[in-house]
Specification:
Elements lengths: L8 E4 L3 E5 L8 E3 L2 H10 L4 E6 L8 E9 L6 H16 L1
Antiparallel strand pairs: 1-2, 2-5, 3-4, 4-5
Length: about 90
């Protein structure tokens, strides 16, 4: 899984900080796989990972598109960024 681990943007919603690593328009398909959600939840309960797949890539060429971090689980955007980076590191192991 080729990964770009730099955060492009963070948007605060009602329930989640949406920490974006890649533009969703770069992908043909985006999923929230159970295995990634389990890994994310082990860092911060309620977190989710969205992965994207580009057409022409192999079956295993899924990249982290974004991480959703619960607003009530962190103290602001900086902590949401840190939690998202920890989650991406964990799923990349």
């Amino acid at each position: 899984m080729a990964e770009n681990h730099s955060i492009e943007a963070v948007e605060e919603g009602d329930d989640y900080y949406h920490v974006r690593y890649a533009d969703p328009d770069e992908f043909d398909e985006i999923r929230t796989p159970d295995w990634a959600e389990n890994a994310a939840g082990s860092v911060l309960d309620g977190s989710e990972v969205r992965t994207g797949h580009q057409e022409g890539g192999g079956d295993d060429d899924w990249e982290t598109q974004s991480v959703l971090v619960p607003v009530d689980g962190v103290d602001g955007e900086d902590e949401a960024r840190s939690v998202a980076d920890d989650i991406v590191a964990k799923i990349s192991e």
